[in-house]
Amino acid sequence: MLDVGDLHAWYGKSHVLHGVNFAVRPGEIVALLGRNGSGRSTCAKAIMGMVHAEGVVRFKDQPLLGRKPFEIAHLGLGYVPESRDVFPRLTVQQNLLLGQKGSGRGSRWSFDDMYAMFPRLKERCSVEAGLLSGGEQQMLTLCRTLMGDPDLIIIDEPTEGLAPKIVEQVGQYLLRLKERGIAVLLIEQKLTIAMDISDRVLVMGHGNIVFEGTPDALRANAQVRKEWLEV
Length: 231
Hints:
Elements: E1 2-11, E2 14-24, E3 29-33, H1 40-47, E4 52-59, E5 62-63, H2 69-74, E6 77-80, H3 92-99, H4 111-117, H5 119-123, H6 134-146, E7 152-156, H7 164-179, E8 183-188, H8 191-197, E9 200-205, E10 208-213, H9 215-219, H10 222-229
Parallel strand pairs: 3-8, 3-9, 6-7, 7-8
Antiparallel strand pairs: 1-2, 1-4, 4-5, 9-10
């Protein structure tokens, strides 16, 4: 579904990604792990057309490099940034409504689905998004992206700053995406959730992929964990 080949990316003159290669298959959860500064978030932004990048990025056989972010989103690729970008003066319900494409008919997701996954959002559906807690804003950003009915969703640090109970909820929520046929590229630092729900894991270091394999293979590779993941 998503093919990334020899991907390079820059912030100004700073060369951040150095020939990244990986793929995400339909209905698969792939975790992209690594320490801060390893290039994980830059990789997501390069795929979404938000930074200068060169190489090959194809989504459902459509080339992405050179397209604008909204054009990429309309192809069915969702993106949840780590910055929790909500519309602060709009209510929870209005934020979700903005995520819909067209009339929303035929989508795999509805308002009821969102509120069933995160009942707290239903309780606060008439509250302005800017008044929500950080965890609530994270839930809202995830759900708003889903309302666009993506075929693949890139989620950057979805558990950052969330209580352990909510982290567990997010893990279950990501598995529900897989059940509905949605592929997930999960950018995460917390090994537990990534290892528990992922089909494959990628480890990034110094702007490139330094490991690719199953969660069990990473568990068995103490050298990779020590060098690239453990603090």
